[in-house]
Design brief:
GMP Synthetase, Chain A, domain 3; alpha/beta; Rossmann fold; Ac_CoA_lig; 31% helix; 655 residues; 22 helices; eight-stranded mixed beta sheet; 2 domains; binds ligand 6R9; seven-stranded mixed beta sheet; AMP-binding_CS; ligase
């Protein structure tokens, strides 16, 4: 820590509560504190405020239909189209304003006004139809951060074909699993892209994935790399540019979708090895993305707003594409990494484009901190009005660094807790209303009934710890897990809904509450690790590891990591009992990368003669976590084989 930072720490520690700057409050979209009470008194009608952010082709006749819980339905009877709401309705007033400001890693830029975006989305929608895509067909988008990704999403939305975006960093196997699970016959992909100046090949990986898909696949390939890269062409492949040329000037009427018609699927990790197909609606989801963008990110049409997430995750869906575009603002989209070509890349972009809101992740902030404040100091960041974070808990030190060195102590910081399943933000301060407390996400949003409960589901009173729950439905909630209503109930509603009159949503996070009702989210209580804000299922990783020849048994847990938050620790029992085998370690790492992708790469592979097990034969993961973290070990008395713990510790420290 620099001397300056130590000073800052001391100074900031004395006042753990930060008021929003008056200049921010004066112009905030939401600044009336009575909103909390008003929403509570008027629930669920308060959510007309969210639906009212959109244009509906046909008005809804009921805000919330609770007749078949937990399959709640929002704005029933209403009809709308997401692409119309993100594009067409802005054309008269701000057709020439920038919708997407795209910045490529090598420094190229592409600017799409609302008119430009509307034109290309229409052309691509016509092309998709021409290839046979019909309403309700799931189209898989396996693409990096190129403008054609949001274009394809909006084109799908225009014709009522749900999209399923698969993060480009995921492996071929992961693509195949997701396409099979969604019965998806259409795929939009890309030849490759750049990472730190290097070409990342994407098409061969796509082809390998498609070879594992059960359906016949029609695919469209975007040319990101130009002549530099000659991608292979299969019979099923169509060239994106040629399709657009063939449909120049085409117009496609936006399909009127029912409010509860599916807008998209997003696969995420859960307790079992099978990824979960989280299904989102059109009306409820889009209302939620728009309203939270308005109330929390304080987005106004004239702003330049930047969320540095990847569109392959839910944050990019809700807060690069749907929320900001529904509000008619300028959304910045950056292809590359924050340290290329230099560690000031983000600040250079904020400076050049006069970015007003920056929404990023704690893992990025911890990296910026490590690199030092000289990088932001080189740039004029005074355009910033609000800062946000999402993805994992933010430690107070990182929060304060962000507040001071990026926000110059004059921007509110919103620490937003939410999930793929919630569609948008749930717990965070309203920046124009509530004080901020570093490390605590804040109170639930108005109208959101989040509570901390104990094992038996009883509410934990102030200053207690327990499990986070949501006690009332909300418009952005998932509709179900694709084709699996049973698992939807099992995963999210079974834990705390003993009494069938009251359904309680359980996000599988632990939390504590303070005496102002501020929540501090402590992290997952299920078998999910959070690496750099990305959710990975330990069971998925384990199944890749045990598939490697020579591995007898394996257990995967998350251990603390200074920058990534958590990292993957893999404990392995080998078939021959050896505890030192470099070649096997390499094969294990490769297997995990092949099964999931480089983000799941184990930080450590620890060979051990045995794993700590309970008398009933369950692996004690909690102990393995303690070992990974170098913590005092918890209770080992229920172990069948307590002596094993020392062996593992020895092997772990050898690494
Ligand atoms: C949006 C997103 C969801 C999980 C969630 C929790 C963790 C997200 C957080 C946070 C503490 C925050 N999480 N935001 N924990 N404070 N502000 O990240 O969705 O990828 O589905 O992950 O991330 O554990 O349950 P998703």
């Amino acid at each position: 820590m620099s001397e300056q930072d130590t000073e800052l720490e001391t100074h900031l520690n004395e006042q753990e509560v930060f008021e929003p700057p008056q200049s921010f409050v004066d112009q905030a979209n939401v600044s009336d504190p009575s909103i909390y009470e008003a929403f509570e008194e008027n629930w669920p009608a308060c959510w007309e405020n969210a639906a009212g952010m959109l244009d509906w082709f046909e008005g809804y006749n009921q805000v919330l239909d609770e007749s078949n819980p937990p399959f709640y339905e929002w704005f029933t009877g209403g009809k709308l189209n997401a692409s119309y709401n993100c594009l067409d309705r802005h054309l008269d007033d701000r057709g020439d304003d920038v919708a997407i400001e795209w910045i490529g890693e090598l420094g190229e830029t592409r600017r799409y006004t609302y008119l430009d975006l509307h034109k290309e989305v229409n052309e691509f929608a016509a092309a998709l139809r021409g290839l046979g895509v019909e309403e309700d067909d799931v189209v898989t988008l396996y693409m990096p951060m190129v403008p054609e990704l949001p274009i394809a999403m909006l084109a799908c939305a225009r014709i009522g074909a749900p999209h399923s975006v698969v993060f480009a960093g995921f492996s071929a196997d992961a693509l195949a699993t997701r396409m099979n699970s969604a019965d998806s016959e259409y795929l939009v992909t890309c030849d490759g892209y750049y990472r730190r100046g290097e070409i990342i090949e994407h098409k061969e990986k796509t082809d390998e994935g498609v070879s594992g898909v059960d359906q016949n696949v029609t695919s469209i390939v975007v040319d990101r790399l130009g002549d530099e890269y000659d991608h292979s062409v299969q019979e099923r492949d169509h060239d994106y540019d040629a399709l657009i040329r063939n449909h120049t000037g085409a117009e496609v009427d936006p399909v009127a979708r029912g409010s509860e018609d599916m807008l998209f699927l997003m696969y995420t990790s859960g307790t079992t090895g099978e990824p979960k197909g989280v299904q989102h609606s059109t009306g409820g989801y889009l209302s939620w993305a728009a309203w939270t963008s308005h109330a929390v990110l304080d987005i106004k049409p004239e702003d330049t707003y930047w969320c540095s997430a990847d569109i392959g995750w839910i944050t990019g869906h809700s807060y690069i594409v749907y929320g900001p575009l529904a509000l008619g603002t300028t959304s910045v989209m950056y292809e590359g990494t924050p340290d290329y070509p230099e560690k000031d890349r983000l600040w250079e972009i904020v400076d050049t484009y006069d970015v007003n809101q920056l929404y990023t992740a704690p893992t990025a902030i911890r990296a910026f901190m490590k690199w030092g404040e000289q990088y932001p100091n080189e740039h004029d960041l005074s355009s910033l009005r609000l800062l946000g974070t999402v993805g994992e808990p933010i430690n107070p030190r990182a929060w304060k660094w962000y507040y001071k060195h990026i926000g110059d102590e004059s921007c509110p910081v919103v620490d937003t807790w939410w999930q793929t399943e919630t569609g948008g933000m749930m717990v965070t301060t309203l920046p124009g209303v509530r004080d901020m407390k570093p490390g605590s996400a804040g109170p639930p949003l108005p109208g959101v009934d989040a509570q901390v409960v104990d094992e038996s589901g009883e509410e934990v009173q102030s200053q207690g710890a327990g499990y986070l729950t949501v006690q009332q439905p909300w418009p952005g909630m998932l509709q179900t897990l694709y084709n699996n209503d049973e698992r939807y109930i099992e995963e999210y509603w079974a834990e705390y809904s003993d009494d069938q009159d009251k359904w309680v949503y359980f996000p599988e996070d632990g939390a504590k509450i303070d005496n102002d009702d501020y929540l501090t989210v402590l992290g997952r209580v299920d078998d999910v690790v959070n690496v750099s804000g990305h959710r990975l299922g330990t069971m998925e990783i384990e199944s890749a590891v045990v598939g490697v020849e020579g591995v007898a048994e394996a257990a995967v847990v998350g251990g603390h990591h200074e920058v990534k938050g958590e990292a993957v620790y893999t404990y392995v029992i080998t078939e021959d009992g050896q505890t030192d085998n470099e070649a096997l370690r390499e094969r294990i790492i490769t297997a995990v990368e092949d099964a999931i992708g480089p983000i799941a790469r184990p930080e450590q592979v620890i060979f051990t003669p045995e794993l700590p097990k309970t008398r009933s034969g369950k692996i004690m993961r909690r102990l393995l976590e303690d070992i990974a973290n170098g913590d005092e070990l918890g209770d080992t008395s229920t172990l069948r084989n307590p002596e094993v713990v020392n062996d593992i510790k020895v092997n772990a420290s050898d690494d």
